[in-house]
Amino acid sequence: MKVIRSVKEMQNTMLEQKSSGKSIGFVPTMGYLHEGHLTLIKQARRENDVVAVSIFVNPLQFGANEDLSTYPRDFERDSQLAEESGADYLFYPDASEMYPRPLAIKVTVGDRTDVLCGRSRPGHFDGVAAVLLKLFNIVVPDFAYFGMKDAQQVAVIDMLITDYNIPVTLKTVETVRESDGLAKSSRNVYLQPNEREEAVILNKSLNEAREGIINGERDPEKVLSFMRERIQQNSSGTIDYIELYSYPELKPVKEIKGTIIIALAVKFTKARLIDNTIISI
Amino acid sequence: MKVIRSVKEMQNTMLEQKSSGKSIGFVPTMGYLHEGHLTLIKQARRENDVVAVSIFVNPLQFGANEDLSTYPRDFERDSQLAEESGADYLFYPDASEMYPRPLAIKVTVGDRTDVLCGRSRPGHFDGVAAVLLKLFNIVVPDFAYFGMKDAQQVAVIDMLITDYNIPVTLKTVETVRESDGLAKSSRNVYLQPNEREEAVILNKSLNEAREGIINGERDPEKVLSFMRERIQQNSSGTIDYIELYSYPELKPVKEIKGTIIIALAVKFTKARLIDNTIISI
């Protein structure tokens, strides 16, 4: 596996692969790789001639009071894990390489962002869209792999690709979980021991809601208040949101039908965790 | 030459050429081709394996009171001229193919646009940037060709390519002129006979200003007031702007030095004409 830190070198290398007819699979990450990321890399490996992974903690998608400076980093470990999972190229630029000057042309995501994480993180998805527009142009992938844990991010990227005809196919992969059901996340390391135990209720309440819906519940309000109660009674975390929308449009629904997402965010002392489930009935 | 009207077909065709190692030269136009466009196509032909031309009158870059509906169109003639000049593919989508729904993700150009045409055409360059982002993704060119008549457009595209690492190299070509110096433009057909004669003063005053600067004039105000007088005395047109800036930054200068642009726009009865000159001292 080759580590590349320069935008120009990465782009030239990838364009060369592309012009020789090879398919490129791309897994963009912010590093501190866990099994969720590795699942994406392994799938990219199975489906492409060339696999590129990027590690870039994108400052543009962090708000002023968010955890940019404390976001966990471990390049040596990441590098080894990426190689073992089948990456051919690891793109690892620093912020001044990606943003040598402030962007003069801004990207604004005007749909699917006034809900869920978008509401509590203004500008977050603008930053996500901008960096992916850049990364897609640098890596020129045929396929890009994203985990469904960030379902709203997937919905936004889907719009970005459609609106601007980006020649990449989005591949989504199921959320990878710990044995007790907690969604894998780079931020889980910041949970205190009791919080780590309590955090199980996030996925558990989503599963209970799913079961309720499969058994006939059609009222979003009833589902959400049941979940709210379950999480409040079983954890010390503060609920940031628990919401239910159509997917991928992320529009409110009065009655549960078609494909919907239930998504939640809960704040613990040093980590804000997200999880979701998508249900088609 | 093959005419393609579908985004998907164009993109697949171009990606196939790209993956077989061929270089792609691209000339985006709004049609009604004149010698300026043909010069771009011929240069693309000399420098690339494959030449793609697009004809798309982009509604997003026209303001509410602008000439979208009356913008001149002649597809049969354009098609013949493009083929004769060396185009292999002519991409000719309609508006619903390019914008099946309103863009949910907007592009906003926040620099180099508060002057010249940007000032009198709010949102114009946002529309230009959005359509080029789409076209670059559809045509995947190695080289894209633009005329220097739209110097501000070139400055904006240069920023777009830099900000988002678009894997395309910008090629600019000198403004092509009639024998009397008038810049070729699709809109020249809307000049009345006396206006056509008067319009010669646009280029003439630019040349006179250039001469003055070469002979030592360094005061932008003096250059501009001289030009204003020359145009007012020799034409019935209304001056929209005559301005002088650093290039390509398009920042005001107090003293003429380095590379500068003098650009103007003059409104005649049914046509607004632009022209410019770039001077390096």
Automatic annotation (TrEMBL), chains A, B:
Subunit details: Homodimer.
Pfam family, one: Pantoate_ligase
InterPro entries (UniProt xref): Cyt_trans-like, Pantoate_ligase, Pantoate_ligase_C, Rossmann-like_a/b/a_fold
Residues noted as binding (R)-pantoate in the record, renumbered to the chain: Q61, Q153
Location within or outside the cell: Cytoplasm
The enzyme's E.C. designation: 6.3.2.1
Enzyme class: ligase
Organism: Bacillus mesophilum
Pathway entry: Cofactor biosynthesis; (R)-pantothenate biosynthesis; (R)-pantothenate from (R)-pantoate and beta-alanine: step 1/1
Catalytic residue positions: H37 (proton donor)
GO cellular component: cytosol
UniProt-annotated binding residues for beta-alanine: Q61
Catalytic activity entry: (R)-pantoate + beta-alanine + ATP = (R)-pantothenate + AMP + diphosphate + H(+)
HAMAP family, per the entry: PanC
Keywords of this entry: ATP-binding, Cytoplasm, Ligase, Nucleotide-binding, Pantothenate biosynthesis
Keyword Nucleotide-binding: yes
SUPFAM superfamilies in UniProt: Nucleotidylyl transferase
Family designation: Belongs to the pantothenate synthetase family.
Main subcellular localisation: cytoplasm
Name of the protein described by the UniProt record: Pantothenate synthetase
Remaining remarks: The reaction proceeds by a bi uni uni bi ping pong mechanism.
The keyword ATP-binding is annotated on this UniProt entry: yes
Any GO MF annotation of the entry: pantoate-beta-alanine ligase activity
Function: Catalyzes the condensation of pantoate with beta-alanine in an ATP-dependent reaction via a pantoyl-adenylate intermediate.
GO-annotated biological processes: pantothenate biosynthetic process
Binding site for ATP: 30-37, 147-150, 176, 184-187
